[in-house]
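Milestone M4 deliverable, item 7.
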Amino acid sequence: MRRFTMLGICLVVVAFFTAATVLASSPGFVSEDATLTSTTFPDLLVSWHESGLGTSQVTYTVTANGSADYCCLTNSGHCPKAANKENSAGPVSATGTFNVPHNGTVKGSLSVPPPPPPSALSCGTGQTAGVVAVEYTDVVITDNTTPATDSNLSGNTYCLSLAAGVSCPF
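Output delivered:
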């Protein structure tokens, strides 16, 4: 009888540690947020909290569709009422690797830049290409290591107008 009691206790202990290991390796996103970070070159800052990670490092990728209106800015930072304004649109992304602490949780953020200025934009002397409006849609966070995906931000539009007469969304 004593042998069966010890065997039962051992089985319960093994089952407990097996369940704890399974739970620790069941990743999931707890929260996410996105904000525009700068008024001079507006990146989209995407932040998240993922728990249940059992690995020592996790690589994340944030993807989105980006659209940016560029114009030739004067030295004083103004966009003249000239015809040299262009739009650049397409997929944008950022990737980063984060260390996982002993608690199996990562709170991270990546900054996603707008699409680069179009090569067709030609600025005159004393002018530089600059963003006057930017829009991000379909934002998705992917944990490439486990893998897990969070598309809770994909239904939102993040838009910022930096110049008078340019509205969001454009």
